[in-house]
Design goal:
- By secondary structure, the protein is an all-alpha fold.
- It contains 14 helices and no strands.
- Helix 1 packs antiparallel against helix 8.
């Protein structure tokens, strides 16, 4: 009986590197593309959902004090999902974790359809909550796009910027969906929100399998807790103002007799939320996170001032557009800020997103006050 022993020889290459350690790969590029598609579809669903929830809540709530509860439930679901999303990436991998989130979004959209056809306020809140969970998972796509051991500025900007497509097609798709569901108001948008998450599910299910278990000593890691406190606080303030004003905008516009222009205003807002990342992509080597964040803060202040004095479509549209651009720059800037010295741990990323979405929830609860 002979035994064959593997002996190194001239010309033989032994790979001792982790996958992706030699730089960008075709698998990495395909992952970024799939995450960009999934994120864009998730944002499309979010446009439809947030177009519905403030006004449907106003119509179905048993009392005026509960009118913003469905809108707030959306952000409550997003906030609660952020930390589990980050941990599930390690436990089950990107494909399973993100597919779970997209599945909950599809189910939430169908619950919304049920709520709107049967006039059930409780179901409206539940559907909004599940859609929010899906949104919390999809927000983590921008972190997951960063390559192992890399800063990933381009990947973050590509994934974020892809959502600008959602703002372009949302008005046409929304009008078509509503025409199919006529005369039931908002039902077509709810069904379209569910279908968008089905598309996101297909994209995330096609992701190459990747699970990274991290052993991080926070005390010795340069990207520890202290490194993310300031950008997290700034980002949270931006999210609070964005959700507060955008929850108030549809209600204020209806009060001014401008209900037909609500969806168009929200579409402009969403385009402004994600288009800046495509502009920054062209200047990615010159991107300075603190500068981006500062400019975003100025736009947010301007948006709030214009909203306070608006009574016409033009005023609300300009306010919503500046609000979206300011939020975009603040969110992008803080995301690049926490990634500038390498990848933080999953726990830190989850805590960062949880803080942003918790602030968004507080803004949603305050929306009626802003209106």
């Amino acid at each position: 009986m002979s035994t064959t022993t593997s002996i190194p020889r001239a010309g033989q290459i032994e790979c001792v590197c982790e996958p992706g350690a030699l730089g960008e790969t075709s698998e990495g590029r395909s992952s970024v593309a799939l995450l960009a598609i999934a994120f864009s579809l998730s944002i499309l669903s979010q446009i439809f959902s947030l177009s519905i929830l403030p006004l449907a809540g106003l119509a179905l709530a048993p009392s005026d004090s509960l009118a913003t509860l469905p809108y707030a439930a959306f952000y409550a679901g997003a906030a609660l999902a952020s930390l589990p999303a980050s941990l599930l990436l390690d436990a089950f991998g990107r494909r399973a974790a993100f597919s779970l989130g997209a599945s909950l979004g599809a189910a939430g959209g169908m619950v919304l359809v049920f709520a709107l056809t049967t006039f059930r306020f409780g179901a409206l809140v539940l559907g909004a909550f599940w859609l929010g969970i899906a949104s919390g998972f999809s927000l983590f796509y921008r972190h997951a796009a960063v390559p192992v051991g890399g800063k990933g500025t381009s990947a973050i900007l590509i994934v974020f910027g892809a959502a600008s497509v959602a703002g372009i097609v949302a008005p046409t798709l929304g009008a078509t969906a509503e025409a199919f569901a006529a005369p039931r108001e908002f039902v077509g948008l709810a069904a379209a929100a569910a279908l968008a998450h089905v598309g996101s599910l297909i994209a995330t299910a096609a992701l190459p399998y990747r699970r990274i278990r991290e052993e991080v000593n926070e005390a010795n890691n340069p990207q520890g807790w202290r490194a993310i406190v300031l950008p997290t606080a700034i980002g949270a303030a931006a999210w609070f103002l964005m959700t507060g004003l955008m929850g108030a905008t549809p209600i204020a516009m209806v009060g001014c007799g401008l209900s037909d222009a609500v969806s168009g205003t929200i579409a402009w807002h969403v385009m402004a939320m994600y288009t800046p990342s495509l502009v920054l992509l062209a200047f990615r080597n010159a991107v300075k996170p603190p500068v981006i964040v500062s400019f975003g803060a100025l736009l947010l202040v301007a948006a709030a001032a214009i909203f306070a004095f608006s009574s016409k479509v033009a005023g609300f549209s300009v306010s919503a557009t500046l609000l979206g651009a300011g939020w975009s720059l603040a969110t992008l800037g803080t995301t690049l800020w926490i990634h500038k010295d390498g990848r933080p741990s999953r726990r830190l990323l989850g805590a960062h997103d949880a803080a942003l979405l918790s602030a968004a929830l507080l803004g949603a609860l305050a929306a009626q006050t802003f209106a």
